[in-house]
UniProtKB/TrEMBL annotation:
Pfam families: AAA_31. SUPFAM superfamilies: P-loop containing nucleoside triphosphate hydrolases. The lineage of its organism: Bacteria, Pseudomonadati, Bacteroidota, Bacteroidia, Bacteroidales. It comes from Alistipes indistinctus YIT 12060. This is AAA domain-containing protein. It comes from the Bacteria. PANTHER family: P-LOOP CONTAINING NUCLEOSIDE TRIPHOSPHATE HYDROLASE, PARA FAMILY PROTEIN CT_582. InterPro entries: AAA_dom, DNA_Partitioning_ATPase, P-loop_NTPase. Residues 7-45 form the AAA domain.
Length: 47
């Protein structure tokens, strides 16, 4: 059976609230602890 991709969005309109920090911690846990393959895309819409 083919594995389905899981999409997780971390978002907030305010800057500097910890989006990137949380994303790195979460993706590290998912990969290094749970063994999942993870792709991270860190976007900044206005810039
Ligand atoms: N290595 C570090 N040591 C101390 N403080 C840090 C470090 N890295 C980030 N910070 C602080 O932690 C807070 C959250 O940073 P982070 O970059 O995760 O926020 P962000 O929501 O992704 O910001 P942005 O909207 O600019 O992308 C900010 O106040 C930042 O200055
Ligand atoms: Mg950021």
């Amino acid at each position: 059976m083919e594995k389905e991709s899981l999409f997780i969005a971390v978002g907030n309109q305010k800057g500097g609230v910890g989006k990137t920090t949380y994303t790195v911690l979460l993706s590290s846990y998912l990969h290094y602890q749970m063994g999942l393959r993870v792709l991270v895309v860190d976007c900044d819409a206005p810039q």
